[in-house]
Amino acid sequence: MDLMPLVAPLMTSPLLYPLLVGVSTLDGVLPMIPSEAAILAAGVFAHGGTPSLWIVVVAAALGIFLGDHLAYGLSRSVFGPRLISRFTHVSRAVAAASRQLDRRPTLLIVTSRFLPGGRVTMNAACGTARVPLSRFTPASAIAALAWAAYTAGLGFLGGAAFVESPVLGLALGLGLSFVIGGIAELVRRRSARREVRPEDSPVAGRGLTPPHGPTPGRVREGACH
């Protein structure tokens, strides 16, 4: 079934922009909403001149920004921990993210946007860890604009590659998004393993004093007292 006759009128309608704001906002708390596909499709059609690529990016970024703060507010409220604890996988991911927020929170918030499931997890972690809005809001704005431009840009490239077939352009954009997201996730996991290795080193396992621990001289001084 060819969906283009149904999709094309929407993609060339002024209603597209508020729709992008809406789906991008709801996607912040309901990940099953296909905001990425909608932004990609808008980017594909933007190659033809309508809709405007720049307005697509701004509308999507605005929705993402609002959705981030909606998720942040919910997770910071009394209902947040209760909702998160109902999903074991989510609660573990949020706990792991929360432990890293004391280091480079802005970088984590921005880069998590490009990881599968990273947006919801990091926003929930920021809320439960009570990251100040003075730090969360600027990072969310940067992340929202970067991800909106990235996603719409992938769609635009797909539309340029398959001018006569928007479906193939959308498929190319989705494929590139999955590949780049998968590579980013692999890099993140390798980095996380490297950070864990020093704690699991043979020196720590044998009960030997690590290099940064107290020196023998200091131990003897404590014994003399």
UniProtKB/TrEMBL annotation:
Residues 33-155 form the VTT domain. Pfam families: VTT_dom (PF09335). Keywords: Membrane, Transmembrane, Transmembrane helix. Coiled coil: none annotated. Residues 194-225 are annotated as: Disordered. It comes from the Bacteria. The keyword Membrane applies. The chain crosses the membrane at residues 53-74, 139-162, 168-187. Belongs to the DedA family. This is DedA family protein. It comes from Cryptosporangium minutisporangium.
